[in-house]
Specification:
The complex is a heterodimer. Helices cover 47% and strands 10% of the residues of chain A. By secondary structure, chain A is of the alpha/beta class. Chain A has a domain at 8-155 and 305-377: D-Maltodextrin-Binding Protein, domain 2 (3-Layer(aba) Sandwich). In chain A, the strands form 2 sheets. A 5-stranded mixed sheet of chain A has the order 2-1-3-8-4. A 3-stranded antiparallel sheet of chain A has the order 6-5-7. In chain A, helix 2 links the parallel strand 1 (40-47) and strand 2 (71-78). Chain B is an all-alpha fold. Chain B is built from 14 helices and no strands. In chain B, helix 4 (68-100) packs across helix 13 (252-260). Chain B is globular, with a radius of gyration of 25 Å. The mean pLDDT of chain B is 90. Classes of the chains: A alpha/beta, B mainly alpha. At the A-B interface, helix 1, helix 3, helix 4, helix 18 and helix 19 of A face helix 2 of B. Chain A: It comes from Streptomyces koelreuteriae. Chain A: This is Sugar ABC transporter substrate-binding protein.
């Protein structure tokens, strides 16, 4: 009996001792000093790029290792699904790679936990190489510093089905440019098709509120403000679309993939996408491809939305000089340009968008999309606040859904969404 | 004195059994006990993914009581148990009775009924989304016969019912196998005696088969109720990451996933929800087993 108690106590200590160590270090941060010899082994993590760009990255790494003898880069690639969770696990477990492919919303919590290197301190000499807006894209409200090198930029055109436009009596050569035009086209199309053809398949996201001209956050970045009159007006208009079936009935649970499929089958007349989608249309829906219309994103501000990718350096890295040098190498003008020629993305380096590759059309749809996107990127805005987390996106989506279903007014819905997002923002610390 | 103490310990705690058990104990400790205790500890902290927590007592549990989404999750998980367990106790038994017979080609049917069990839940989810989508096969058939389309995946309640149907469909084969094993142990003489006494098929089923497999039914009830309360995949795949329209189809485990993961995840709060899920599943098991004991006595 005495022994079993002892054994139990020993087992309990063995189990409970590690518990006292649970939780990550967070907050401490590492030194910002990245000076010294570029050498040693580092790990570089990309976001779902190995499948399509393996030769490009292998060449890039070989080039870097040749330029800096004594360095070795281990490349790991993570699937798109659950990427944030993988980074969370690594960050919490202290196994975050030295150089990590991130988006601004992923950088924010890592920077707050002291895991992202402040490049304004560690590598300020590189700032001038990038577009000012792109460099600023990895700044965090409430913090000083820049926490990732800007990598590629992206923006997408809006595709529309010319046949459906014609059938609804709309001019297929004059697609809607502003939200007001979009709403009136949507209502007309729903009326003409007896509710069978919707114009849109997604509920408004934070980017829609931004493109509509809504002030998303206060200037200090301490509270959200998308429940202003403009925000309420936008949501009320979406409610009108939903009631008229100009917004697909399944929009409340739609994902980008499901709405893309609806567009392919002709159930929805307009869908956002990228130049990559043209190939899919050609392959999966040749009849749609013949009637595809390509236009700029709908915006009432004159500025389209821009997605920014970055390359972050782990502040806890034991090989900071090599990590900073490699992160810069991946994102410098020459390498961004060569990557852009392999895939429909756009460099964030100063002057790159003036390259004839982004300014001259050759008559093909692909070039037309590329040139138009590159042009719009010069004034594009990243409308997603860097502090807007996944939980906040769901909170907004759920409140928007309640408003569309008529369970609460647009004003109540947005007030609740802002309240919830502010609460989550406070909890982020 | 000391030596005799050690030898007494050696006598009472022989080494070799512990050495044999060590690999299992280590695995259980690392992957079962440690996460369990860690969750329990985290539930009383405000820990976040990247920020170690402070002890906050019962604050997470108090917050749960005021969280509408928690009550939505609790409601949906409970409804799931009520909607899924009765068909999963009864239908696989009937299916097992059907495929129990040794007739030519029956192996094909046994395998066919078991196929959904081994199919990946993601594949199953995708197939059912294609079937139940607004423009899916079922709605196309309905339209062909002149009926209106049904919003299986856009209506809050229909979506939950659809997810329940997927769970039942996927679970039938698994529980059928359990029942097949139990039916194999029912003495044939009992059926023959009942038949001699003039009992028909239904009566024989009620008076011979059901009592003979009653403990298996209890086991199936207990297993399926715990699984149903912890449902995640079916609802997630059909309702999407936001949990259906306005999140109204969110279940408790979906809420744990949504709240506790990601770089800004609230690990402490999600752990508190997980503790509630644990307590409810234990209570469910106890209730089922108690009902069984009462029935036996």
């Amino acid at each position: 009996m005495r022994i079993s108690r002892r054994a139990f106590a020993a087992a309990a200590v063995a189990v409970l001792l590690p518990l006292s160590a649970c939780g990550s270090g967070g907050g401490g941060g590492g030194s910002s000093d990245a000076s010294g010899k570029v050498e040693g082994d580092i790990t570089f993590q990309t976001w779902n790029l190995r499948a399509n760009f393996k030769p490009y990255f292998e060449g890039l790494i070989a080039e870097f290792e040749k330029k800096h003898p004594g360095t070795k880069v281990k490349w790991v690639d993570q699937p798109a699904e659950g990427y944030a969770d993988k980074i969370s696990a690594d960050a919490a477990g202290g196994t975050l790679p030295d150089v990590v492919n991130v988006s601004p919303d992923l950088v924010a919590p890592l920077a707050k936990a002291g895991l992202a290197l402040d490049l304004d301190k560690a590598a300020p000499q590189y700032e001038k190489e990038y577009l000012p807006g792109a460099w600023a894209g990895h700044r965090i409200p409430g913090m000083t510093g820049t926490y990732a090198f800007p990598w590629y930029l992206n923006t997408g055109p809006l595709f529309y089905n010319k046949t459906l436009f014609k059938e609804a009596g709309l001019d297929p050569e004059q697609p809607p440019k502003t939200y007001d035009e979009l709403f009136s086209a949507g209502l007309k199309m729903a009326e003409k098709s007896g509710g069978k053809v919707a114009t849109l398949a997604n509920v408004p996201t934070i980017e829609d509120f931004g493109r509509y001209g809504v002030q998303l956050m206060n200037k200090q970045g301490t509270a959200f403000s998308f429940n202003d009159d403009k925000g309420v007006r936008l949501l009320a208009k979406y409610k009108e679309l939903y009631d008229a079936k100009a917004l697909d009935p399944q929009a409340l649970t739609a994902t980008p993939e499901s709405s893309g499929k609806k567009f392919l089958t002709g159930a929805v007349a307009m869908n956002p996408g990228s130049a990559l989608d043209l190939g899919n249309f050609k392959k999966q829906a040749p009849s749609l491809y013949k009637n595809i219309g390509i236009t700029d994103q709908v915006t009432s501000t004159g500025h389209v939305n821009m997605y920014v990718m970055g390359v972050m350096v782990n502040s806890q890295s034991k090989r900071k000089p090599a990590a900073v040098a490699f992160a810069h190498f991946v994102t410098d003008a020459a390498h961004q340009m060569s990557f852009a020629k392999k895939v429909a993305i756009f460099p964030s380096t100063a002057g790159s968008l003036d390259d004839p590759y982004f300014t001259k059309e050759d008559g093909s749809d692909e070039t037309r999309v590329r040139v138009a996107a590159a042009k719009s990127l010069k004034t594009a805005v990243n409308y997603t606040p860097v502090l807007f987390s996944e939980q906040m996106k769901i909170a907004l989506r759920n409140e928007v859904a309640k408003a569309l279903q008529g369970k609460q007014s647009p004003k109540e819905a947005l007030d609740n969404a802002v309240k919830e997002c502010d609460r989550l923002l406070q909890q982020q610390g | 004195m000391a030596l005799s103490g050690i030898s007494r310990v050696r006598r009472q705690l022989p080494t070799s059994p512990w050495l044999f058990a060590a690999p299992g104990l280590l695995v259980t400790g690392a992957f079962v006990l440690y996460p369990f205790l860690s969750t329990l500890v985290n539930a009383f902290t405000d820990r976040r993914t990247l920020i170690p927590g402070q002890f906050v007592g019962l604050a997470n549990f108090r917050e749960l009581l005021q969280d509408d989404m928690f009550w939505t999750g609790l409601r949906n998980s409970t409804l799931y148990v009520l909607g899924v367990v009765p068909p999963l106790v009864v239908l696989p038994l009937l299916l097992a009775l059907l495929v129990q017979k040794n007739i030519p080609g029956i192996t094909f049917f046994r395998s066919a009924f078991y196929t959904p069990v081994v199919a990946s839940i993601v594949v199953v989810g995708l197939i059912w989304v294609w079937l139940l989508d607004d423009r899916g096969l079922v709605n196309s058939l309905l339209e062909t016969v002149g009926a209106d389309r049904v919003g299986f995946l856009s209506d809050q309640w229909l979506l939950l019912l659809s997810a329940m149907a997927v769970t039942v469909w996927k679970g039938l084969g698994y529980y059928m196998i359990i029942y097949l094993a139990a039916l194999g142990n029912v003495p044939r003489e009992l059926h023959e005696a009942a038949a001699v006494d003039g009992a028909g098929a239904v009566r024989r089923f009620m008076t011979v088969t059901v009592p003979a497999v009653r403990s298996t039914m209890v086991l199936v009830g207990a297993l399926s109720s715990v699984a149903a309360f912890k449902v995640f995949s079916e609802v997630y795949l059909l309702a999407g990451p936001s949990g259906g329209p306005a999140g109204e189809d969110t279940t408790l485990v979906m809420l744990v996933q949504r709240t506790g993961t990601g770089l800004t995840g609230r690990v402490g709060y999600a752990s508190a929800i997980a503790v509630v899920v644990f307590v409810v599943t234990v209570v469910l098991m106890l209730l089922v087993l108690r009902a069984d004991r009462k029935e036996e006595s």
